[in-house]
Amino acid sequence: MTFDLxxxxxxxxxxxxxxxxLHGLFAGIAAVIEAVLGGLQTALLYPPALVMIPxxxxxxxxxxxxxxxxxxxxxxxxxxxxxxxxxxxxxxALVSVSVAISVAIAVPLGILAxxxxxxxxxxxxxxxxxxxxxxxxxxxxxxxxxxxxxxxxIIATIVYxxxxxxxxxxxxxxxxxxxLIELGQAIxxxxxxxxxxxxxxxxxxxxxxxLNQCILLSLAMVVLAGLVGAGGLGAEVTRGLTRMExxxxxxxxxxxxxxxxxxxxxxxxxxxxGRKG
Amino acid sequence: xDMATQVTDADDVLVDCRSVWKVFGDxxxxxxxxxxxxxxxxxxVLKEFGCVVGVSDATLQVRRxxxxxxxxxxxxxxxTLIRMLNNLIAPSGGQVFVKGRDVAKLGPAELRELRARHIxxxxxxxxLLPHRTVLENAAFGxxxxxxxxxxxxxxxxxxxxxxxxxxxxRRYPSELSGGMQQRVGLARALASDPEIILMDEPFxxxxxxxxxxxxxEFRELTKSLGxxxxxxxxxxxxxxxxxxxxxxxxxxxxxxIGTAEEIILNPADAYVAEFVAGISRxxxxxxxxxxxPVADWAAERPGVDPAALPDTSPEADIDxxxxxxxxxxxxxxxxxxxxxxxxxxxxxxxxxxxQGSRTSGAAxx
Lengths: 277, 365
Description:
The structure holds two protein chains of two kinds.
Chain A: H1 7-21, H2 23-45, H3 49-64, H4 66-81, H5 85-115, H6 117-132, H7 135-146, H8 150-174, H9 178-186, H10 191-224, H11 232-243, H12 246-276
Helix pairs in contact in A: 2-5, 3-4, 4-12, 5-6, 5-8, 5-10, 5-11, 6-8, 7-8, 8-10, 9-10, 10-12, 11-12
Chain B: H1 2-6, E1 13-24, H2 28-38, H3 42-49, E2 52-63, E3 67-71, H4 78-85, E4 93-98, E5 101-102, H5 108-117, E6 119-122, H6 134-138, H7 140-145, H8 149-162, H9 178-191, E7 196-200, H10 208-225, E8 228-233, H11 236-242, E9 245-250, E10 253-258, H12 260-265, H13 270-277, H14 287-290, H15 294-300, E11 311-312, H16 318-327, E12 333-337, E13 340-345, H17 347-355
Parallel strand pairs in B: 3-8, 3-9, 6-7, 7-8, 11-12
Antiparallel strand pairs in B: 1-2, 1-4, 4-5, 9-10, 12-13
């Protein structure tokens, strides 16, 4: 008799069961994600790179200042010069969709957790697990359910991206000045008006920090998900690794750095604007 | 004035607090039952139920046009009491009526309506939204009520003009001094044109000079607009300066309610007496409290004709009486209510008044 505990022995049948019984649901989820992702990717790749790069640079310069516009020009130009434009845009699309879904899950849950200490207590160990289990491990059930491709990559990325966003949302809403909420009640505002006109604007700076974290962690995970056929820059890294092609691995790696720096600086700049306003 | 306000009918009572209790803790219903049935005190409730009594058995009425001050030190329950008037804190026992309606029985929408239109609040922390301009802050109450932009901005501009901030409407709160911020808070309360304004220690955080100025402005504005106010403060000077009537609170209990003059002349207990000891009487004690009856005066000074004395009204304060006494021969000052001679202030009775010992036979209302 051994005392070895094997969670896999429990989980694998559970995943199998889910697969057989909820196949329709998962297929539906996969179809929606594929459609959104495909649309975004097509849109990003529709204009030629030589049109897209200056366009983005100009828009960023107008919105957030010329330094960031220049940064966008350099970062995107680098991806183009490395001959990884298409892959870079695939990665940006994957990150965007993952972050959007992560935010849609994490913000409402985080707000609820800020209001209900019990929910927060229940969520905390779950979030700890989501953040500390090595990311490769989520890929296994994700692939079992959604098979290889971009969808399991996005699912695994969401699992990785939700915790920071959720924790910071809870923090943001817990830090809101008590007197401002009391003001809302005292002037006869509805709970909805208090949420939208008092709580959300006050929470924006901390929420932006959460978003920044969410974007960077999602990018890291999306790259890792190249292993399961997510495409994009991650696929190039994986190819470089499996073929032992130093040059390809390095080019893809540097392109990832360029995309990461760009996304980080842009979200930070947006954050600064949120603070000022 | 005193005589007039005593004759009130029920319509004139805007806020009516009837033996209101607030108990904090996990076993509030049991603690309230024990209080009602066994008459437990604050420390017994804490010992037996682990509940803290915030406000106990508070009864007060605020009349139309009146500024009612609640004075107490921190922890006296005054902030809890004021929050029960608009149900930000629900009472554990007793009833609060605002304009004749039991606040605890209102539904959520009715309660919001009451707060939005009839009973505004100004906070010690000011509670301005930092990401909105002064104008948007002043209009915030109207905004959440769904008033159209044009109309609410016009109303908010008018309210800001009343507090002297017309030139600052496009600025952000962080650009304003503490005193100006609190004016915005007041303008926001005025913008919804409520009958009652709850002031929760609004001027406590300001420096003394600005505080004085705002106290005077607040009183003037409230009176000229015909509003009623409940004003919380820990400063007796402030309560006296602003309030028509003052309630003194200690440990959750209202110890005494009365005009400043009543409280100073007749402190209900040693605690109140100690509080009022340091208060300057010069402007608080009035002629009607220090005068002696005409007959007594005549007996003391036969042959002096009261018509020869300088005269004054019953509402003249000690400061004015001292001036009159210094200017006159010192035989006394005739106190006339209209044409009728109601009493005489002699130098002797005046000195008693200054000192605080009560003049024999002095009538006060």
